[in-house]
Amino acid sequence: MHPMCSNPCRQRGFTLLEMVIALVLISLLALVAAPLLRLPLAGWLDASRRAGLAQALDTVQGKLADDFRRALPNSVRIRQVGARVLVETLEVRASGRHRAGPSGAAQVCPAVCSAAGARDQLEAGCNETCFTSIGALDGDVPLAGDWVVVNPLGPGVAGGDPYFGGNAAVGGGIKTRLLDTAAAADGRRLRIVAHNFPALAASRRFHIVATPVTWDCDPATQRLTRRWGYPVAAAQPAAFAAGVPSAPLATNVLACSVRYTAAGALGRGGLVTFSVRLAQTAADTGVPEQIELSAALPVSDGP
Fold it and tell me: Which of 39, 88, 162, 249 has the fewest other C-beta atoms within 10 Å?
């Protein structure tokens, strides 16, 4: 038999003093552990911030390379408004080579497209309504209303400025509207709004242009924005209508710089050097962290 308690047995808990001591010890442990936990957290935040900045620059570089790869040769023009930099090109949808008249023979303007035996060559100084490419077109399927451009030499170059005349085909200009295309025996036949081209490229290359494209770097708004789908303008625009399509490519932009160097004596193709600097402030330290992209992007005359 178990002995009986003469008094009721008591269950003893923490005294107030013991509870205070325990809370003090826990607080001391928390003070020691907090810096140890903060350091890896800060490291993770830094790595995440840098990864985000690097990913933003990767997106910019990839889109820039694609746009300048598809740019019409000698269509790059640059405008600076204060710290804001705007770079414009004309986007090529397709390109090809055209037929020309016999070498050394007197020039004869080709017959209309529907005439029997029409050679469908493209000649300078003739009121052309159609011509046939040599082989298939390179690029995407052209659309009615696109621009057919012949012998672009650069903005401001007489007889070779792709922006001359703005959004209209004018005398002495190098572009006209495409009406349609159709399969031909050994190429692609293009019908165009009647136009007299002042000169042909030595390579006999022509381009079909879809739209102007502008890269708008504005440190005031800290945005790098791509704009497209607006009319061709003789003077490079700095203001765009509300309905013009646009996409922000990067935020936290501090500055941009752009330089274009034409390649060769004839300026066929060229090289765009594009630099953009981004910065993001660390939330824990308040210190801004910067990252910069500097890319050399070729503008090719095509194969």
Answer: 39
